[in-house]
Each structure stands twice: as C-alpha cells, then as structure tokens.
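Exercise 7. Given the encoded structure of a 404-residue chain, write a plausible sequence.
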C-alpha cells in the first residue's frame, strides 16, 4: 500500500494541467548535436544534386532556362523544303549565345494564337494562311514572300514589350525534339547530295580521260596514214570540237559554285551570315523602308538610304516614293538591262505584284505593312547586283544623283 500511494503522488503529464516539465541542459545539448549532424549530412547531397541538375540543363538546351536572357536579334534567311514541307531556319542571337531553330508555318500560327490569348497588345503582322489546294507552297516565289513576312514578324515580336519575355515566345525560340529530327534528316539529305555530286564529278573525269585517250589514238592513226594532212585535220576533227564543248559544258557548273562570290561581272561580293559586304566604290550599301504615310488616295513610303563607305555626316539620307514609282523604276531598269546586260535580267528579283483597288483596300493597315515589307525585301536585293547599283534610273530613284 505504501508503494501504491507513492506512485499516485507523483505528477502526471495531464494536458489540462498548467504545470510543464522543462528538459534538462544535457537533454537540450544532445538534441542540438543530433540536429547539427543531420544538417551536415544532408547539405552536401543537396548541393551536389543541384549542381548535377544544372549541368544536365546546360547540356540539353543552348540557353540556360534559369537565366532571363534578352534576345537581341533574330533573322530568317534560309528556308528549305523537306518531304513537301517548307521549314524556316531562324537564327537567334543574344549577348552571349547563338543558335538556330527550325520551324514550320503552322508553328508560327500556334505561337500567334497563344499570344492573342495572353496579351492584349497589337501583335505584328503574320502572313496570311493559304491552302495547299489553291497555292503551291513549294514554289520559290511563294516561299520567298512568306520568308520575308515571317522574318519581319519575328523581328518585331522580340521588340514588343510584355510579349518578347512571355514563356510561349521563349519556348518558341528554343530547340525541341521536332527541330532536332528535322536537322538530322536535313544533314542526311545534304550528305547524300554531296556523295551524288562526288560520284557525278568522278564519272565526268573518267569520261574526259577516255575521250582524251580516243583522241590520241585517232590522232596517231591519222598521223600514220596521212602525215601531210596533219595541220588541217587537227583543226577540223569532230572529236576536237566535242572536247571543246565539254569544256564549255563544265563552265556553268563551276560558275554555279561561285554564285555567292560573283554577280554578273568581275566584282566579288562576299556573303556574310546576315548581311553582305559590298565594294568600296558602291554608292548604296543599305536600304530600309522605315515608315509609311497615308495620303488622300495613296501611300508614301519613307526610304532610308545609306552608304557605309562615306563619313557619318553624308552617310544617310531619306527619299519619299509611291508604289507606282517603284514600278516605274523597275520597268526602266529592265529595259536598260535587256539591251546592255541581258544575262542579269533572268536573275533579277521581281517587285511585289500589283493588286486591284476594287478587290483590296490599299489604305488598310495590314495591306500597307505587307507591301512595305515586300518592297523593302525587293529593293534590298537589288543592291547585290553591280549592274543595278550603277544604273542611272536606280541611282535617281534612291536619291544619289539628286544629292550629287
């Protein structure tokens, strides 16, 4: 009974009781030491896992996603056709990174649709959709027109505030699985084309060697039979003429390989990544149609012309032109080239097509923007032709003769 009374007299841990027992100093020190040991054991593992994860992210993408990098420049220069589908190669540049992404037109459409859902700002002009039943999407003229409009779209997109930094835009300008598959297939086709060209070149060399052997054999036979007719026979032999035709037939192939180096003359033009380097004596090196102005019944295009070879005070000037003046200049230019430089005419880029006012509203903002982009693309390409930039009608159109 004494034992039972002693046990009942000890305090109990009743939650309703206001009395609490505090832990001793030894118990607190033991708990703190265990907590420190646990922290020291887990912290290195967490840092290692974070570092490993960051390294994997850097390997999988060109630009780390944990950093907000501003896209400074984008351009679309080289579209290509793969299995009846047109792909557009986008060159993306930031302050420290540089990469390429490949997209189809439908992906541009998806991006524009997403932006209209999340943004209330006016988006750049996206080229209109054309169905394949009515329009051949693989036609070079159609591809070039859409490329110029898409190039203008992405360039203005990255300059639009609160849109360029959105997640859908960031994802669009990064590589994806579809892009990698297209690039791999594109490289495979290029390798096959290269091997085919090598085989054709080797077969051409072999045929030339056999033709030379046949010519030598026939030449020796004629020397043995009729040595007195040696001189006349060498000039009139059909095999000699055929050999000369072979040399002429090979000339276009060598010229085709140098299309980016020479343009209708001896002046060389070196193709850069996004721009061209022109001769020092060229009067105009860059043309940009910066803005437009609506008049009563027509539109004025403000053309900024520059010559990087002159000093800054005389480097840039502005001219105002109507759409009809572009066509007048193009007509005079082609007439002159037809009589003086007919070889240049087939490669000359055409101006944007005319459209009837009864069908199209020429004062519509989207119509004006599309025409501005196409006119700028057309006149900028003319700068790559030495026969054009030295033409008086062209120089008068861009204001060089007026300023001189």
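Solution.
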């Amino acid at each position: 009974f004494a034992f039972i009374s002693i046990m009942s007299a000890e305090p109990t841990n009743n939650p309703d009781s206001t009395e609490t027992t505090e832990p001793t100093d030894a118990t607190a020190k033991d708990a703190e030491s265990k907590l420190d040991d646990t922290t020291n054991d887990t912290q290195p593992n967490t840092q290692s896992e974070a570092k490993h994860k960051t390294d994997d992210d850097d390997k999988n993408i060109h630009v780390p996603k944990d950093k907000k990098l501003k896209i400074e420049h984008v351009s679309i220069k080289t579209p290509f056709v793969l299995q009846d589908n047109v792909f557009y190669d986008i060159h993306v540049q930031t302050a420290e990174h540089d990469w390429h992404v490949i997209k189809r037109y439908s992906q541009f459409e998806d991006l524009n649709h997403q932006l209209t859902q999340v943004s209330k700002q006016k988006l750049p002009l996206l080229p209109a959709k054309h169905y394949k039943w009515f329009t051949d999407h693989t036609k070079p003229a159609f591809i070039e027109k859409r490329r110029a409009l898409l190039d203008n779209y992405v360039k203005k997109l990255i300059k639009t505030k609160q849109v360029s930094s959105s997640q859908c835009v960031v994802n669009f300008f990064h590589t994806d699985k579809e892009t990698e598959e297209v690039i791999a297939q594109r490289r495979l086709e290029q390798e096959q084309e290269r091997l085919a060209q090598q085989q054709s070149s080797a077969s051409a060399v072999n045929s030339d060697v056999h033709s030379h052997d046949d010519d030598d054999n026939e030449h020796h036979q004629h020397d043995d039979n009729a040595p007195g007719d040696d001189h006349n026979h060498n000039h009139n032999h059909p095999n000699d003429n055929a050999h000369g035709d072979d040399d002429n037939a090979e000339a276009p192939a060598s010229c085709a390989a140098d299309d980016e180096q020479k343009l209708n003359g001896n002046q060389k033009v070196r193709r850069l990544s996004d721009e061209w380097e022109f001769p020092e004596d060229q009067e105009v090196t860059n043309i940009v149609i910066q803005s437009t102005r609506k008049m009563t019944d027509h539109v004025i295009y403000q053309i900024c012309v520059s010559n990087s070879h002159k000093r800054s005070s005389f480097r840039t000037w502005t001219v105002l032109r109507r759409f009809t003046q572009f066509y007048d200049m193009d007509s005079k230019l082609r007439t002159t080239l037809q009589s003086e430089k007919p070889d240049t005419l087939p490669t000359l880029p055409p101006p944007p097509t005319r459209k009837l006012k009864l069908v199209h509203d020429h004062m519509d903002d989207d119509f004006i923007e599309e025409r501005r982009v196409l006119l700028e693309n057309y006149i900028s390409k003319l700068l790559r032709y030495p026969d054009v930039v030295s033409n008086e009608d062209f120089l008068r159109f861009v204001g060089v003769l007026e300023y001189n």
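Remark. Residues 80 and 87 are 5 Å apart (CA to CA). Students should compare their own answers with the one above.
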